[in-house]
Amino acid sequence: MIKLISVIISTYNPNQEKLDLTIKHLEEQSLSKDCWELIIVDNNSSKDVKINCSPALSYQLIKEFKQGLTHARLAGIRAAKGELVVLVDDDNLLMPDYLENAASFFSANLNLGAAGGKILPAFDNEPEAWLADFYELLAIRNLGDEVMLARWDNTYPKVSPVGAGMVLRMNALTDYLNKEHLILDRTGNTLSSGGDNDIVIEVLKAGWEVGYFPSLELKHLIPPSRTTFKYISKLTKESSKSWVVLLLSHHICPWKKIPRYTLPIRKIKAWFAYKAWSNKTNYIKWKGACGTFDGLAT
């Protein structure tokens, strides 16, 4: 049985209303508060982070001065005392049974190293229709209602959890914690990513299973600023580059590296191949291709 879960919220200049909601949903967890701890990591915010919660909820607030989500998560994990770690962003609303379900799944499957579930969007405003093609970039995922598990086979499994709500067995993190970390995640206002994928790969390579459990459900609060054409275009390009760099670092990249001097002509050819001028979706996909080229030229 899992005796203690460590919930880690990493935050940087948070929206106070969304952070308050994130904590409120943790307060409403069905799992007894004696069975989990809350660690909040302030990732060098420009002003003090204010924590609003009931007196019944105790928490530990630590500050990580090294900028970047990876640094913040590492600080939280190293401060954690639980057998399980749950990574929560400061705009994630966990359903009331989230922690209880996590404890149950990991108690029943002793080879389970990492897990996630459904991440449903909660938009402040109704987004334009084209955004649906890029939900995955916004950590929105719904793989259905069946439990799915995967092991390492030198490829990245589709069922792998993403950072929002990711549940990790502490014993599965030994190799990840002891490695030299490739910092791909967001630092300040950059939109690079991949730190959560790096965790999953290290867990898999260490011999653990990863899984998708649909009853691990949370809502992701998404403001209008993250649904704009400009934002998604930039996010797509930077995420694509980060993904390639990550795959190269683990020697599982399916594409060959390319000379940097070929970048301009490749991007021009891709502009026409994707018909990037024709609509927003095609333009964003072209930006993703440009990011991939940039990654392969590193």
Automatic annotation (TrEMBL):
SUPFAM superfamilies: Nucleotide-diphospho-sugar transferases (SSF53448). PANTHER family: GLYCOSYLTRANSFERASE (PTHR22916), TRANSFERASE, PUTATIVE-RELATED (PTHR22916:SF64). InterPro entries: Glyco_trans_2-like (IPR001173), Nucleotide-diphossugar_trans (IPR029044). GO terms for molecular function: hexosyltransferase activity. Residues 6-140 form the Glycosyltransferase 2-like domain. It comes from Pedobacter soli. This is Glycosyltransferase, GT2 family. Pfam families: Glycos_transf_2. Keywords: Transferase.
